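Morning F.,

Quick status update on the modeling queue. The single chain you submitted on Monday has been processed. Sequence for confirmation:
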Amino acid sequence: GRIDIFAEEMLRLIDLSEQKGTFAEFYELDKSFAEKRRRQLWSDTGYLGMVYQGLFGMIFEVEGIVFSPSKPRPQNFVETEETISLLNVRYRRAVLDIHVKGFGNHVASFKINGKNQDVPRLHAAAVGKQVIEIEVTQP
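Structure tokens below.
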């Protein structure tokens, strides 16, 4: 996908959430919202979806999770380290520590527990702690 569009839309959502320190059900064109519309779960869920499915590229399938991260460069996005991490994510009978290194949306390497994998996928039958290391580059 278009990493520039993803970065722009995520920045817009972050900006809205920082207006009053919450997510609202909907916003007016001036970024305001009615007080009774604050703290709406589906707005939070949209943001989390951008983190899980966008930044970390988690595509949930019956057979497991396929990874396809989109990590924009800091000059086009929020200031991030070269490696970002999502830790202690519960998935079925596994607990995932996911690390994405680099910038871009092309998976250059994918490891599970230090072992290179041909396909960026975690099988649904995984059990226990799983350390996932993904290196991304620009295509």
